[in-house]
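Quick one, tokens below:
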């Protein structure tokens, strides 16, 4: 039975089955990850997006809090070919509409051809096509969510591993995945998670050995304050960044980011290290990319598929960033050593 409607740009309607009721809207994107739905659904970088899973069965090993990357579901809506009752109930409990029994392969192909697009969903016994179209009508582009950081950052500074006697990390939390903090704490770092709009003096007061800019949702150009902190401290404090963090660092140091057609989201994105010529498999979730790194940053790693920058550094300024997610979760652990490199840089 079809009791859900998805309206996509061009006012096309796709019918589906409601698994979690409600109306919603967002940027329609897809991930090719074949595992890790709990981690993806709790990744703050998906805020304001509708997430389509290309893998056809979502929920086949249950739902466990231990695997969450944050304390709530972040995509505004979820699309799958087939979703288990566990996942459907979890999403309903979080008021995140979800649909299945639709041709997700068709949606993925369309996004690949047309690029990420705006969409609206209406799901449930009373849902109508008009409701889905009304949601689509209200949907705005990712870049117009100018204060998206406020939706995902910590409200107050928070200390992780206060008694550690390793590296002191000031983490600008632009929507950080829990595994980034865990990966640093596993190396005995003390992590001061700071709000995304922390001031230069807020950062300095933590006496950091390294300033770390986290992943996060939306357009990196909307994280202006984080950029100002980076510009003020570059050269004085070593700098690291993951995903949105790489983009913010590049923009702050004279580079430029741009929106990609449909982005990279999955757990098998190949990345070549230009110095060692080694290729590693990486976890990714981004829709923007560094189009120009500026003249302060070297491109050290590139995506094998499209040559976009995956790693940037500057040895004398002590900067190292990654576009992909070295903390994995979900995905391969090929790049966990990034955290060793960050700690080594901070201790230099
Ligand atoms: N995972 C992230 O940090 C995503 C970064 C940014 N929001 C993008 O889509 O490119």
């Amino acid at each position: 039975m079809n009791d859900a409607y998805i309206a996509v740009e061009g006012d096309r309607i796709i019918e589906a089955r409601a698994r979690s009721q409600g109306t919603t809207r967002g940027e329609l994107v897809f991930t090719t990850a074949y595992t890790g739905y709990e981690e993806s659904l709790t990744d703050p970088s998906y805020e304001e997006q509708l997430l389509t899973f290309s893998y056809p069965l979502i929920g086949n090993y249950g739902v466990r809090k231990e695997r969450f990357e944050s304390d709530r579901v972040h995509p505004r809506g979820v699309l799958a070919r087939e979703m288990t009752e566990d996942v459907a109930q979890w999403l309903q409990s979080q008021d995140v509409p979800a649909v299945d029994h639709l041709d997700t392969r068709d949606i993925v192909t369309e996004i690949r051809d047309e690029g990420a697009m705006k969409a609206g969903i209406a799901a449930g016994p009373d849902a109508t096509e008009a409701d889905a179209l009304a949601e689509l009508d209200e949907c705005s582009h990712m870049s117009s969510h100018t204060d998206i950081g406020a939706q995902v950052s910590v409200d107050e500074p928070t200390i992780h591993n206060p008694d550690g006697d390793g590296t002191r990390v000031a983490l600008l939390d632009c929507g950080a995945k829990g595994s980034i903090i865990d990966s640093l704490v596993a190396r005995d770092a003390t992590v001061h998670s700071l709000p995304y709009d922390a001031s230069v003096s807020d950062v300095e007061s933590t006496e950091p050995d390294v300033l770390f800019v986290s992943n996060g949702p939306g357009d990196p150009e909307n994280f202006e304050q984080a950029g100002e902190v980076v510009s003020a401290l570059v050269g004085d404090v070593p700098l690291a960044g993951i995903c949105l963090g790489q983009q913010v660092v590049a923009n702050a140091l004279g580079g430029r980011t741009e929106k990609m057609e449909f982005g990279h989201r999955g757990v098998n994105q190949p990345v070549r290290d230009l110095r060692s010529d080694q290729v590693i498999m990486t976890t990714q979730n981004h829709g923007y990319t560094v189009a120009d790194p500026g003249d302060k940053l070297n491109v050290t790693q590139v995506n094998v598929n499209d040559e976009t920058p995956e790693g940037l550094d500057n040895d004398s300024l002590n900067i190292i960033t990654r576009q992909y997610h070295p903390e994995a979760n979900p995905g391969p652990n090929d790049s966990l050593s990034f955290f060793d490199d960050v700690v080594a840089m901070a201790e230099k």
